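Marked as duplicate of an earlier ticket. Keeping the data here for the record.
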Amino acid sequence: MIIHLKNKNALVCGSSDGIGRSIAIGLAAAGANVTLFARNAEKLGKVLVELDRSIGQVHTMLVADFSDPKSVKTAVESACLNHIYHILINNTGGPPGGLIADADPEAFYSALNAHLINNHQIAQVLIPGMKGIGHGRIINIISTSVKIPLKGLGVSNTTRGAVASWAKTLATEVAEFGITVNNVLPGATKTGRLSSIIESKAKKGKHAIDKVEEEMLSEIPMKRFGSPDEVAHAAVFLASDQAAYITGTNIVVDGGRTGSL
């Protein structure tokens, strides 16, 4: 299967590092014009020069802090003055870990703003253009906690579930316009987020980092962590014409760890 995304415009949130960066690189390699979007202009600039331009792709970047939904919406509205986006990748860093019983209510507001509210507002800005051309791909990078809550990630579990339900609802509303909405659920993937989770578990349990890693790997049938590129492959496929009849579903990329279908 060869995926061609020439002349498609893609907005990739959280693309300065990790999974978002890998998705941006993958979409560009398939021929898409990519707009990088995150808060760190210096990091975005480094990713920008990595993107494939072999068939004339034109890449740009937007800068806004995802803790401020108003600034995120303003930045996207500005970009849409010159572009109709065919592809939206909703992705941003997960909330801090911790037991849900200990969570400050403010942590839920912050997490929902960073994820659900931003996803919703960006989609609202882009969907009219997608409807106008009869084509769109909205892909949300969430977590396997949508299937089974993860221990010690109470606020994250709650927020991810809200985003998944939002996506399923939206998928049914926009399907008739040629717009698909799907979720990619990464498992333990080698990113800065995973490193911070491992370090936090090691500190709280007073264990060596190697010990914590071994315990996590023992739960994964493939006995290894995933790579950001492996998550990106799923997102690039969902962005393609080949995935035109797939909508309202979750694609799990976790090496078989999640104990449900």
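See parent ticket for discussion. Residues 105-133 form the longest helix (29 residues).
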